[in-house]
Amino acid sequence: MKAGYIQFTPQLNQVENNIKRLHKYIDDQINPDQVDLLVLPELALTGYSYPDKQSLGKVSSEKYNKLTVDTARKIAAQINGMVVIGYPEYTEDGFYNSSLLVASDKTIGKYRKTHLFGFESEVYLPGNLGFNVFETRLGKIGMMICFDWFFPEAARTLALKGAQLIAHPTNLVMPYCQRAMFARSLENQVYTISANRCGRDNWKGVLVFSGESIIYIPKGEVLSKAPVTGEHHDFIEIDLQKATNKNINSVNHIFNDRRPEFYF
Ligand code: ACM
Fold this sequence. Notes:
Blueprint: E1 2-7, H1 15-29, E2 37-39, H2 53-56, H3 62-79, E3 82-91, E4 94-102, E5 107-112, E6 133-135, E7 140-143, H4 152-160, E8 165-169, H5 177-188, E9 191-195, E10 200-202, E11 206-208, E12 214-216, E13 222-225, E14 232-237
Helix pairs in contact: 4-5
């Protein structure tokens, strides 16, 4: 199958226009036959920097939950595949920084960001769904969101639960993740797709997003890397069977060789 990302630049508070721009990008630039799994960034349709619940509430409601699902399903139908998309999920208890795995006719899975970054904890609740793997017709897919990369337990948990590919919507601002995902992919022998955004917006000061969306294969090799700036996409051929074998040589099996009795 072919999987990859669109590195997109949403504008704050312009959800409908962002959706229009995303559809146009896909119509103009993407051959639907060349993609089965498309990963979009964290908060892909709203932008990132909502400094309080009141401002976030203008782009996160039941209406916007539905708009996100409808948009993702439409794109999934267009590519005859699946879409992972980050969005600010509205619930009666509060907001979550969430992502969905969507096919044209249904939502397959949802994830709520576990490790909130910086001021996010002022507007979002910490994710309460844990790390789950979704068995799909394409393979076993897990999700984590942006700052979760800093906690190796996130990717490890997904891999131990059988994920062959980790879809990783991001709005990265620090310069480390794109290199660190080398380790997440190698130490778990999984594919990782980090779909970042680029551009900038304001969060108690200017935030510059670092682009360089990146795909690693289980051997830790980079198969695609986007530029730092500018919208971009790439899709690569992926063989998820390569993420099933956890032997790294004739002796060592990275899961069976673990010594959890010594881990804290
Ligand atoms: C981040 O978690 N969006 C940096």
